[in-house]
Every structure is written in C-alpha cells, then in structure tokens.
Amino acid sequence: MSRFIVIASGKGGAGKTTTAINLGTALTGFGREVIVLDANLTTPNIGVYLGAPVVPVTLHDVLSGKKHITEAAYLHPSGLKVIPGGISLDNLDKIDYKRLSEALMDLNDKAEVILIDVGPGLTKETLAIFEMADNAIIVTNPELAAVTDALRTIKIMEKMNKKVMGIVLTRVKEDEFEMSPVNVEAILERPVIGIIPEDHHIRKSTHLKHPVVYSHPSSTAAVSYKKLAANLIGQKYEESLSKQDGFFSYMLRMLGLRR
C-alpha cells in the first residue's frame, strides 16, 4: 500500500510546491520510492519548476481519458518521480474530475510515498483531492494572515476526518516581525514538524530548475528538508562533513573561495 500525503496550504505563495518537490527528493535520498503528483489542476507548477513545462503526457491527459497515469510519470536525475500537469488552458475543458480518484488508485503500490501537491485555498478541486487522501501536511509562513488561512484549511480537513500530520513553516527569518513556532502551534493546534529558513539557495535552485536538495544539498534549506523527511520516516538525520562535498570543499567555503 502506498502512503498518500496531501501537501496543502491556505494561500498561494507559501512554498507548497517547493516543499512537495524537496520533501520528495529528500525522501528519495533516504531510499524511499516517491512520486510527486501535481494535482493543482488549474495552475500546475511542478513541470515549470523542474524545467519541463511541456511534456508528452500530463495528468490532464489522464483525466481526459487519453492516457494511463503511469504514462505521465517522469524521472528526475535525483531519482524522484513526478507526474506534472498540463499548463495549457485548453486542457481544463477536457478534464473529467471523476477520473481523478481512479487515477490515484492506479498509483497505489507504484511507490512507497505519493505526495500530492494541490492548489492553494479551498477550491472544489482541492476539496475533492482531500477526500482521496488520509494524511496531509500544511505549509505556511510564520505570519498571522498565512497562519489564519492555514487554520481554515485544518478545520475543513477535521470535518472531513482527515489527519493533519503537522505544519511546515517556510521562509523563516527568525526576526522580530514573524510568529514563533510555539505561537503557530498554539493557534493551529498541530505540531510544527519542519522549519525551512529563508535561503537564497532556493532561488538559485529554481533558476537551475532543480530541487534545492539536489542542486545545493548542503544549504540550510536543503538540510532542513532532509531533517523533515527523516522526521516523517522516523529516522535520525545529521548532516555529516562527508555529505557536504568533503573537507577540501569545506575549507574553500570557509575561505570564501566557494559558495
């Protein structure tokens, strides 16, 4: 049986897609077979993030009845498998939303973990996907407006009897203007299971069209995503010097000769 986990957020721009891709890549690094499914049917981004906005077969082709979902899976160099959506607006008119449940069931046993990146907010398509998964991770920023939107999402999931595994805080600066993890937990009544710092390496990785865990594995954001992945599978994780490109590279960074 595959483990289906929805990656959701109360609002756009919280870092949900970045989290889905990097969590999947980190889990792959721990030897898990992972598929990340772009179920943001209106504005899919995973293909764009990974430098392949147009591919031969997408989830939209599956939902229009043209292809089987296994035909829409692509392998990233990291070992992560992704199922992107189609960016053409023409695809929206051909979608049969009733096929979505069938497509997800066809993925069962195709990977150990299936991360489902849904659209932001509480749209009809998002709620339909919530019905199909038992577990969810909520991604938000340490700001009151974002946390309030996350609370709405959690309350809806409670009514649907879905388990919210925890909160991932992204773009954390640790300054005086943002909410502390303790305050976020108090409002959302869920544990903060991951804290992803504001890190310029994420922008660099986006430019390179790769997950930051793959392109900059020793960056603070990448290490945080790897710790999150280890937390989810009950494994202790410590970033060792050997995983940071070796002693020579370490010394070059200390001398300011390498980033």
CATH architecture: 3-Layer(aba) Sandwich
Helix content range: 25-40%
Count of discrete domains: 1
Termini Cα gap:
42 Å
**How many helices does DSSP assign?**
11
**Percent strand:** 15-25%
Average residue-wise pLDDT = 89
The top level CATH class name: Alpha Beta
Radius of gyration (CA) equals 18 Å
The SSE order reads EHEHHEEHEHEHEHEHHHH
Q: Could you give the order of strands across the largest sheet?
A: 3-4-2-5-1-6-7-8
Count of individual beta strands:
8
The general outline is globular
Largest sheet: 8 strands, mixed
Category from helices, strands and their pairing: alpha/beta
Low-confidence stretches: 241-247
| CATH fold annotation | Rossmann fold
Question: CATH homologous superfamily - what is it?
Answer: P-loop containing nucleotide triphosphate hydrolases
Structural commentary:
The protein has one domain (3-254): Rossmann fold. It is an alpha/beta fold. Strands 3-4-2-5-1-6-7-8 form an eight-stranded mixed β-sheet, with helices on both faces. It starts with a strand and ends in a 5-residue tail after the last helix. It has helices spanning 16-29, 46-49, 59-63, 99-107, 124-132, 144-159, 181-188, 200-208, 212-215, 220-232, 246-254, and strands at residues 3-8, 34-39, 74-75, 81-83, 113-118, 135-140, 163-172, 192-197. The radius of gyration is 18 Å and the shape is globular. The chain is 39% helix and 17% strand. It contains eleven helices and eight strands.
